[in-house]
Structure formats: structure tokens, C-alpha cells
Write a structure and sequence with these properties.
The protein is an alpha+beta fold and 192 residues long. The protein contains 6 helices and 7 strands. Strand 2 and strand 3 form a beta hairpin. This is GNAT family N-acetyltransferase.
Amino acid sequence: MPAPEITLHRYATDQLPAIRPTLVGVYAEVYEKEIGEDPFFSVDRFEGRLTGHSSRPSWEAVVAYDGGEAAGYAYAAALPQNTGWWAHMLQPLPKADTTEDGTRTLALFEIMVRAPWRGTGLAHRIHEELLAGRTEERVTLLVEPGHPKVKALYEGWGYQHIGDQRPFPDAPVYTTMLRALRSDGSRSAGRS
């Protein structure tokens, strides 16, 4: 009997209650080690961040299923006009690069794949599905500097390191990365 095929499903904010247990369960599995070592990574803190991120009308998630089993997911939302995202940069960026209008920049908050599906290209499939059809001109994400392979993976997907930030006082310092989503010339696509 052939193995089930991976399917990708897109969810909007109003569907979060149905998938929240899946998102939290995958997070708890993927971050099991960190949860035991650092309160910042606790499931409660993750749930608080998920609640905040998903409160934005532009929030979307893509969940990958292998048969009926969740294999991984990603979620993102547009940065609002008065975002604090860029205020946490350790070295401030030019104002032209950080001015948001609620439609300019997509923040990719989480992307994770469970161990049995790592190294299969699934993270890239989830990522590209999440970005497909988005109207923002660019996407940003954070990477822990202690994960150089993950940073290299994102660079292979077209992201560039634009600086570092600490989004919360008890958070690690993260590498901040940016990638153009469209290059129609209507606005700057960020730093090159």
C-alpha cells in the first residue's frame, strides 16, 4: 500500500480554534528541548504569541498533513502600521526600510516540521504555499543565530540577513532576515 500523500491546507484567523491544538501540539514536540531549558519557549508563552499573531485579520497558516497526521506548519501575518517589529533591532534600520502601512511586509512568525519529515523539502513546500497569493511586497522572519543550518536554508530561499533583534526582554537575540515577494517597482523591497 503506498504511503499517504502530503496535503497542504490553508487556514484563516476564523479557523484557528479548529487547528490551535494541532499548532500547539507540533510546537511542543518540535521545541521539547528548549521548553525544558528556557521559560521563553514554554508552551504558555507560545500560546500567548499565537494569540497575538492570530489577532491580525491578515493572519494565515498552512498545515501539512501526511494522511491525517500533521507533519508541520507555518503561519504569518502582515505587519500593522504601528508595529513594534522593527523597534527591537539592535542597530536601527533606515526609516524608509521600517515604515509599515499594514500591507507592505509579511512577518513569518513560525515555520516548523516534525522530525520524521525533516530533510524532505516539506518546510520549503509549506513556506511557498503560505507565500503564494500574498499581496505584500516582502517577507521577514527571525532565526536564532545558534541555528546556522536554518539560516543557510533561508538564504537559499532568497532571504538576506539585515540585522539582529531581541523582540522581548527575555528572548534570545535573533537574526532578522528579509526577502522580496514581488518586485513590481511600486516601492522599495527593503535593503539589498
